[in-house]
Amino acid sequence: MRQWLFAWIAAVLLAVAASVLTAARADSDMDAQIRDIVTTELGPTATAADPGGLAAAVYAGGRVAFFNYGFADTAAKRPVTSDTLFNLASLRKLFEATLVALGTERGELRLDDPVGQYLPELHGDYVRRITVSELVNHTSGLLLPTDHPPWPNETFSRDQFIAMLNAWTPQHGEQPGKQRIYSHAGYVLLQLVLEQRYRMPIATLIEGRILKPLGMTSTFVPDRDEANRAALAPEIMQRMVQGYFHDGTAIGPPGNQQSYYDFPGTGQVFSSARDLGMLLRAYLDGAVIDPQLRAALQTTMHESFRVDAKFGQAMAWEHVRLDGVTVVDKPGGLNNASAYIGLVPAHRFGIVLLANRGDYPHEIARYRILPALANLIKTQVH
Fold first, then answer.
1. pTM
2. CB atoms within 10 A of CB 193
3. CA–CA distance from 74 to each of 78, 118, 237, 248, 319 (Å)?
4. DSSP secondary structure string, 335-374?
5. What is the C-alpha separation between 100 and 356, in angstroms, rounded?
6. pLDDT in tens, 51-95
7. Please, what sign has the CA dihedral across residues 120, 122, 125, 128?
8. How far is 290 from 293, CA to CA, in rounded Å?
9. CA-CA distance, 70 to 357, in Å (whole number)?
């Protein structure tokens, strides 16, 4: 009897071991296929002939894989790594959208609150009717001179910005909430609303409510110094990329900040592929201790305005319906930086691309890499 029991236990252990080995091989095969898809598509976009470099993070199957190409600083021959710090440009809007969603989750503000409730100095006929929701999903209708070419050469103080908002009238019959118009000014106004509601700087809000809870220790919302650089400790600045125009011309020093608004909080966020890999995990697998923050991250991705049959708008995020897959993504760019984050929530995978040059072709992720990964995962599941 005892020999039979030992034999049975041994057989069970062998079966379990075989199952684990089979699963490990399947995971390894999946990882290899994912890596092949990503490197095949990214490699030609970041060659030795291209300026700067590229850092990418891909989250799939509960794991993050990193891909690095080229140089953080070409002259110094400093290579890009997963810990190199890039300018996120308009990816910053995702953090402000999360603050709004978290505020509504905690009952601290409402999406239908008019902005004048927080900023009484807004008394213009149009702007005073705009709500928090319309700012966060780009349906406010606002389109200031700082939103489109020809770009202004001057900067604007907070008082000048408020004056522009009060004087603004729609050019083509826009109405709050009735159309989707991408608005940088709308998010600067949203920053002021959040700062007034919580009586603290936007950097403090992002750090305390999002970055620290997620363990994102290499994401920074710095002030600007007199040279329009990020004001950070020297050891952090050493990790910053040099930014390049798409023709290879260096633009600004490492940590260059760009803004038409000359008041605190209007610069950019800086982060690494490794830190944003943690953000991918939080969006896709709910790796957040605080259930309210987990809910807020999910809320930001919900489509709230349908643009047309293919495109929709969420809180900062954009929805793109392709054949057999819906991509939820956000691109960002300056003349010396490009950034992209794209998710396929239905299959729990996503990608981050960070480049230190303007006009990096991030569309390759939306239209080629993410659909290819979706097809791969569907095939493996079935």
1. 0.92
2. 26
3. 7, 46, 16, 10, 35
4. TTEEEEEEEEGGGTEEEEEEESBTT--THHIIIIIHHHHH
5. 29
6. 999 999 999 999 999 999 999 999 999 999 999 999 999 999 999
7. negative
8. 5
9. 11
